[in-house]
Amino acid sequence: MATYSRLPGSVALITLHNPPVNALSAAVRQGIVDAVQRALKDPKVTSVVICGQNGKFCGGADIREFAGPMLGPPLVPMIHAIEAVDKPVAAAIEGVALGGGLELALACHYRIAHSKAVLGLPEVTLGLLPGAGGSQRLPRLIGLTAALDLITTGRHVSAAEALKLGVLDQVTDSNAVDLAVEFVRSVAGQPLDSRRLSTLPCPCPPDVDSLLDKVMSKVRQRSRGALAPVACVRALRAAASLPYAQGMEKERELMATLFNSGQARALQYAFFSQRVVGKWSLPSGARWDNSTARIISKAAVIGLGTMGRGIVVALALTGISVVAVETQEKQLAEASRVVPAMLQREAGRRRLATPPGVISFSSNLQDVSEVELVIEAVFEDMSLKLQVFKHLSSVCRPGTLLCSNTSGLDIDQLAAVTQSPGLVVGMHFFAPAHVMKLLEVVYGPRSSPEAVATAMQLGKRMGKVGVAVGNCPGFVGNRMLKPYLEQANFLLEEGATPRQVDEALEEFGFPMGVFRMSDLSGLDVGWRIRKEAGLTGPGVESTRTRQGRRYSPLPDQMCEAGRLGQKTGKGWYQYDGPGGRVARSDPWVHIFLETYRAEHGLVARSITLEEILERCLYALINEGFNILQDAVAAGPEDIDAIYVFGYGWPRHRGGPMFHADQVGLGRILQRLNQHSHPDVPHLKPSTLLRRLVAAGSPPVQKWREFINKERVHSQL
Ligand SMILES: CC/C=C\CC(=O)SCCNC(=O)CCNC(=O)[C@H](O)C(C)(C)COP(=O)(O)OP(=O)(O)OC[C@H]1O[C@@H](n2cnc3c(N)ncnc32)[C@H](O)[C@@H]1OP(=O)(O)O
């Protein structure tokens, strides 16, 4: 709702009440409509201030209402009515003015904000555009060029930047509501025509068409199939070329198309998934709201390879003092040189004046004795990690949390060699660790709630999306990746080319197809893991069935030929040289594949894009169902957040489990059955998938409840 009060000196104060962010729900909109009417009718009122309760102006339209029928007064006429008021109206912006919240402020005649406020039109991130006049008013206020940037990226800006851009009239370090009240009193009675943004022309650069074309091609390239950024540019083209009323008509038309698109639903689901994963729970009953996190101020990182360096930077950026340990002198010297530069660069990118944390470098493990938390990031080798954990357990003071950045090794085994297994968890970062948003927090059967809570809290401080997951080989992300990679290799055996597979996946929306990705991360990573698993290496027979399952030796043979990817200048593609980035098809690979097929009596067939997507994605999704069934992930949102934030799954497709829901569980089951083969266990439909289909394919939002019920009745 919204409350109305009259302050001394003829100012009406309208306050939005809808915790936690004063979203514009039906009740709030109704409250605003009523309060504005009251202010208009009251002859003693000469000016109006709109603010939000509890230091938050407004977080925009109530996203939860998008799923249901439209109730209450619509936003657009409400906003028009505010602009039309013949008494000065000011928005007093504290906390946030986002989306519909900023659009409400743009309808006000003046905008005054607290210096800590954050403003923006993030609708594009929800698959929408600023559809309450924002796409037409903002460019009229700050010019087309700046509006294109804010609206197509959805980025949040500080009050200082908003003032510079001209979004705000004044910024204060003290109370924004008091200042706004004082301000509107001082302008009461002054003409308002020039303050109504809908009446102003849109300031455009002379080469407006070429600017719009350039931005359009940039968003198309960046958004890989997302509809909203393209619609945003179209709406801004209308603002630049049409009178306001016609521009609004275009905005309405574009919004209607977006609003009903599957992409908007997927992006809104992704918004809530990100929040759901923060409310973690463990099978033991420990949860985010009944477990206490420790506040870490001093940490250590062991191992300064690529991952370790990124983790050091991520920690230091939060203001934590870091002891960075590397026992190999050459690697230590290089890290001591490179890490401070990385830190400086990242601090600059985040607009921090100086990096807040202090880093000390050491080659001596003894130097971690005083820290509160250690993150081990040594080579992915179990015996080495066990040695490090044993050593840490004796060096660190009692109560120190010991974390491993392993990408899939057994956390419980590591915990077992320490004196306090309850204080051991996995903190699986993604490269580059100071940039990538995902953090898998892996709990073993003995990990304490405090250890999980501390790792999750630390992730949040580092700006990560932390997802608590159970302990199993590969955890969630890499466990699901295995069948995906496997299918991609099988497709090559059957007649596809790396480019064909990659193009299908990139068209789906991945930033990189599986083979380009593999070239980037290095083919030797998987090779080492397969050797450790006894799947390849000296003495292993070169057959296409290993350990009782279909196996493709193709990637092993690539490694044996020295083709390790970008670092060697050759992998599934060829590059300009070692470290080259531009992938070109390589005739060598085509001959290699033909020779391989001939040797194994395989006849290449033509493979459709549909088959590529089905086999790669449905194999991955099927493993997702197995993971839910095994309670390694608490719900589909956890898996989807992992894939969106760590594995390049296109956000406008919500995540693999959301995608399964959109495609239809019955269809996924039917296609898995079709592609299934006795020696490819990954394609055998999961029991959970079968049970969901048998239960009438409930929507993804109901799966958590369904799984819990099935578990109670021991059906899973
Ligand atoms: C005609 C259409 C016109 C306009 C369209 C729109 O306005 S679309 C909405 C545009 N607004 C946004 O995109 C803002 C979304 N919210 C945020 O970015 C953040 O929540 C915010 C406001 C920066 C606060 O961040 P913080 O980290 O402090 O909190 P958190 O994100 O955990 O949110 C707290 C709870 O509030 C819920 N919530 C936030 N915004 C909205 C919203 N606009 N509608 C509904 N609910 C919202 C959020 O889900 C959290 O609730 P929880 O129960 O914990 O999930």
Gist of the model:
The protein has 716 residues and is of the alpha/beta class. It contains 28 helices and 19 strands.
What would you say this structure looks like, in words?
The chain has an eight-stranded mixed beta sheet with strand order 12-11-10-13-14-15-16-17, with helices on both faces. It folds into four domains: 2-259, 2-enoyl-CoA Hydratase, Chain A, domain 1 (Alpha-Beta Complex), CATH 3.90.226.10; 298-473, NAD(P)-binding Rossmann-like Domain (Rossmann fold); 496-599, N-(1-d-carboxylethyl)-l-norvaline Dehydrogenase, domain 2 (Orthogonal Bundle); 609-712, N-(1-d-carboxylethyl)-l-norvaline Dehydrogenase, domain 2, CATH 1.10.1040.10. 47% of the residues lie in helices and 12% in strands. It contains 28 helices and 19 strands. The relative contact order is 0.06. Helix 15 (411-416) links the parallel strand 14 and strand 15 (424-429). The structure holds ligand LFKQWZQV. Monomer. This is Peroxisomal bifunctional enzyme. It is found in: Peroxisome. In the N-terminal section; belongs to the enoyl-CoA hydratase/isomerase family. In the C-terminal section; belongs to the 3-hydroxyacyl-CoA dehydrogenase family.
